[in-house]
Structure formats: structure tokens, C-alpha cells
Amino acid sequence: MNPADQPIRRRALLWAAVVSGLLLAMLDQTIVGTALPGIVDDLGGPGWYVWAFTAYLVPATVLLTVAARLSDRHGRQRVLLTGMGLFVAGSTVCAVAGSMPVLTAGRAVQGVGAAALEALSFIVVSELSGAGRSGAGQAAISAVMGFSFVAGPLVGGLLTDTVGWRWAFLVNVPIGLVAMVAVSLALPAAFGRRESRETPLDVLGIAALSLSVGAVLVGVNRHQELGSWTSATTGGAVVLGLVGLTFFTFVERRAVAPVIPLRVLTDRVSGSLILAGAFATTGLYACVLLVPRWYQLDQGTSATGSGLRVYPLLIGLLIGVNIGAVAVVRRLDVRGPLLVAGAVALIGAGGFALLSGDSPTWAPLASMALLGLGMGPALSGLQIAIGRTTAPGDLGAAMGTLLLGRQVVGVVALTAADALYRSHATTHEAAAATGHGVAWVAGTGAVVAALALVGLRDRLPTPTLTAEDGPSQAGRSAAPASRAAAGAT
């Protein structure tokens, strides 16, 4: 399939389907988080509160790489449709649930589908860009991600306060069904299929990765509930997960077709990009957790009002992802633009470090805007760089690993931000404690990402033709990279 030769209407249909699928998966994480207190009050079973969240988070995270690798084997269309179908089915179960166990089971099914939606959206966008590897697609996808992360709590609050929490799930059903029809019509079944079905499936690697990452996530989430690392379900689960990951690397060295080829991690370029991607956006998680809570509990702002006050972060992200895409594609360089962006994020983190009860109203808003502006380029720029520097056969694994690292480190960032807040709140006011948590988590992430990128002095390769791009793309591939990135603005 040569995307450039497809009718404009067909390409537009496919883009709309891919973006809507990702939007559903990303929004669901934050919408339901806001609606969950009302759900627990309605259905009972407060002990299921954490598990309703964990049941979605664990499969949605651990299966990212698995979904990406399965699509190399079975084609992007089949895995994407399967993910959409599971997400719609899980949403339906949640919408009609009469008890927390049933809702938790539906959340687990949603999580499995969300893994395919998130992983395949980024991969399909990269491949649809063809030889041009336009930054516009990754900028748009990254903007959807940023928008969902910040707008979700507001949408969840509005739905819960007006039509009821069940609509937080029901709204997924018609959109998901329409997206499934669009994908089945616009995306050929063989698109993205690179691996023979006769190649042995890395079942042991998939199992080891899923169980290990799942154990780490369960341990970290249980710690937020119990507040102690000495329990078998907190520190014990994390240790078990780390041991499992060691076993996973042993398995992958011997697998014929590993779910994560170790060369993706050991290669200087792709390994650095994945490490930077895992840490560059930790401030996003800290902000979304701590800032709305501070506005609500300390400033007396409503849930809807606190969501609106986080919008400087969203606006900064939207601007940042576009600037990052244009800069990386135009300069053929990921190191320079993202180091500058990291410095901007550090300035925003510094602003939060100075936050106090006497700070002017605009101070946290400006700090959030700077954080968003500094983190946005990492969302789009690193994905463009992965698409440019990774061999076609490893694209699914590399993109899946990038998303997996971002999710896992994001969960750890949430726990760290909450712990920093609580420890500082015992001796300081709420504003200072909030600023302390955001500053340390955001600043640490920006520094680690910068250290990962500082050694990348090579320019990104100029886009070249592949067999999938077809001969008709030859004339287009000579166009300046800046022209390809122009759509990102």
C-alpha cells in the first residue's frame, strides 16, 4: 500500500479512525479517574476502588509491545480491529455494570483493547507518512495524547455531574463502532505485515514481560493505597517484577522472533531515544495529579474549575508538540531541539519549586505553560526520530517499547509525586507541598532525558524510499523536509 496514491477521502477516513481510536483509549484513563468516586458510591465496594483503576492500567501498559509485535505478524488492520472490538465490548460491560466486580472485569477488557489502540495508532501514523516521514502525523497524535491527559478530568466531571457516570463508558460505543467500520474499509488487511506466521511466536517472552511489568505496576499502585513497601503486594510485587525482567532479557536473547529485540535497547540511538521518551514527560503526570487536588482542597475550587485551571499545561503541550515536530524534521536533529525544550521544562519546574501560599495567581499557570511547552516536543520529536532511525522490521517493537517505557515511568512518577507531596505537607503549606512534588518529579525527568540525548550527535537520516513507498513516491521524497513538516503547524 502506497498511502500517497490513495484517494484523499480514503486517507482522511483512515486518519479519522486512527485518531478517534487513540482518543477513546487516552480519554478513558482520565475520564474514569474523575468519575470513579461517584461510581464507587453508586455501586458500593470501596475496596474495589484501586482495582478498578489497576485492572485497566496493567493490561493497557504491559500489552503495548505485545500488540505492536503481533501486528508485525498478522497485519495492522487485524490487531487494530481486535483492539477496537475489545474496547467497545469492555465499555459496554462497564456501562451496564451493577456491581464493582463486574465493572472491574469490564475495565480489564477495556485495558486489553486500549493497548492495541495506543500502540497501533502511533505505528500506523508513522507508516502512513511513507518516505516523507512527515512530522504532521506524529504532532497530531501527540496533541491528542496531551489533550486527552488534561481534558479528561474535566470531561469526566461534567459527565458525572450531568448525565451520569455510565455515559463515561457509553460514549465510547458509537464512536468505536464507526471507527471499526472506517478501519475495515480504509486499511488493507496486509498493511504492516512483515513477519511470517510460520515464525515461532515468542510465547515465553510475552508471558515473562506481561507478568513482570504487571507485578511492578500492581506493587506501585498498591503502595498508593497502603503507603508501605514492606507488604508482599507492594515491595514484594516490585521485587518479583524486577527479577522477572531479568529473566525476560535471558529469554529474549534466545528467541527466534523476540517480542522486544534486545538490539532495540542496546543500540546507542534507539536505546537513548527510548530512555529519553520514558522520562521526558514525568512532569505531565505530576501536574495532573497534584495541581487539581491543590486547587480543590486548598483553594476551594470546584472539580470543573480545577480542570479548567490546568489548561495552560494543555495549551503549552499543543504548541510544544508542533514546534518539536517542525524543528526535528526541518533540522534533521533530535538532540538540539529537545535539549532546548528540556531547559524550558526545567524553568517550569523551577517555578513550581518557588510556589507558596503567597504566590500570585498567575505563577502556577505560567509554570504549567512552561512545563507543557518543554515536554511537548518530546512527545512528537522522539516518535519521529524512532520512525526515522529504526529499521522497518523493528518499528513495531521500538515504538511499542517507547510507549511502554513512558507508561511505566509515568506510573512511578505518580507515586513519587504523591510521596513527595505527603512528606512535604507535614511541615509546609499545601501550595509549597504541591510545588515541591511537581518540581522534583518534572525536574528529575527532564534531567534524565537530557542525559540520554546529550550523546546523540548524529543527524537523523534523510528519508529514503522503501519497498512499501512505491516508485510514485520517488519525486516526492526529494522535497525538503520542512515542506513535509509544514502541516504540523
From TrEMBL:
TM segment ranges: 12-36, 48-67, 79-102, 108-128, 140-159, 165-191, 203-220, 232-251, 272-291, 311-329, 336-356, 362-385, 397-417, 437-456
Keywords: Membrane, Transmembrane, Transmembrane helix, Transport
Name of the protein in question: MFS transporter
Name of one Pfam family that matches: MFS_1
Membrane topology, as annotated: Multi-pass membrane protein
Lineage of the species this protein comes from: Bacteria, Bacillati, Actinomycetota, Actinomycetes, Propionibacteriales
Biased composition (Low complexity): 470-489
Matching SUPFAM superfamilies: MFS general substrate transporter
InterPro entries: MFS (IPR011701), MFS_dom (IPR020846), MFS_trans_sf (IPR036259)
Record domain Major facilitator superfamily (MFS) profile: where: 14-461
Record region (Disordered): 462-489
Main location (coarse class): membrane
Cellular compartments annotated: Cell inner membrane
